[in-house]
Structure formats: structure tokens, C-alpha cells
Amino acid sequence: MVDVRVVDLTGPVLRALAAGDLAAANAVGPVPLTPYFAAPDQRPLWRLRVRQLTADPASAGWWTGVIWAEAIGLAVGHAGFHGPPDDDGLVEIGYAVDPEHRRRGYAGAALAVLLRRVAEDPAVRTVRLSIRPDNAVSRRLAARHGFVRTGEQWDEEDGLEHVFERPAR
Length: 169
What we know:
Layout: E1 4-7, H1 11-18, H2 22-28, H3 43-55, E2 64-69, E3 74-81, E4 90-97, H4 106-119, E5 126-131, H5 136-144, E6 148-155, E7 159-167
Parallel strand pairs: 4-5
Antiparallel strand pairs: 1-2, 2-3, 3-4, 5-7, 6-7
Helix pairs in contact: 1-2, 1-3
């Protein structure tokens, strides 16, 4: 398995990425980011995270971070949580790897890092993934990590998604 860290992003980095300003994000960020992070299709994610962080600054560690590939010293994608655990102890994980770096194990490695984190947090009881039905790679990754399909939902941005869950521990 490849060696990755999921590096948290601060409010100033998120705001710069939401504006598509890679230079500003790199000026204040913990690791250098590639153009993938400031691309137009990534900005809605960063705008959402800015809104969430503004509404609840105490939950800063529960948002999207950077998948940092240790061996090559490069940001290869993003992964993290959709927010802190809800009242039932549920957290949802999301991840995306830059197309230039897919099929190298980075998503699986990032998912493993995040699963280790939630296993150590007593507030988290259940972990969820939402996966488009046509994303066979992510469905296989979910199965390898013990997720089972529990239903489906409609996402305004992504359309139909299958919901997969597993216990945090």
C-alpha cells in the first residue's frame, strides 16, 4: 500500500481555493498544491467547506484535506469528512484523486487513514460513503474496507448515489 497523509487545510487556504487562486492557497498552505485543486470543477467543494467552517469553526478537523503522497512529495487528491459526527455518531467520508494519479492506490490509502482516525474517536459509531452507481472502482474499494450497501439517495450535484456503511470499529 502507498504511504499517504491527509493534511488538514486552514480557512485561508479553503477561501483561496474557493476563489480559484492557487498562488494564494500555496502562499499560506501546509503543502504545495497542484492546479487540480483550484480547477473550476473543484471550487464548489471548497466553497461548501468555507461555508461549513464559517458556520462551525470548532469542527475544522472534520473537513476535506489534501492526500499527500509521502514517497513523491506531491498532493495527489483530497479526502476527508463531510462534517463532524452527527447525533447518531455517523460521519461520511469523501475522496477524489487527481486523474493524473488515479489507479495507484492513493484513494484506498487515504480511506484507510481516515478509517483509523474514526476508529480512535468514541463519538463516531458509523462511517458512510456515497458512491455513484457507475463508479465501480469506488464500489470495489468500499467492499475491500468492509462497507455494505444500505440504500440510495439523490444528491443535487451528483445525482443518484448508492449509500454504503460500516461500523467505525
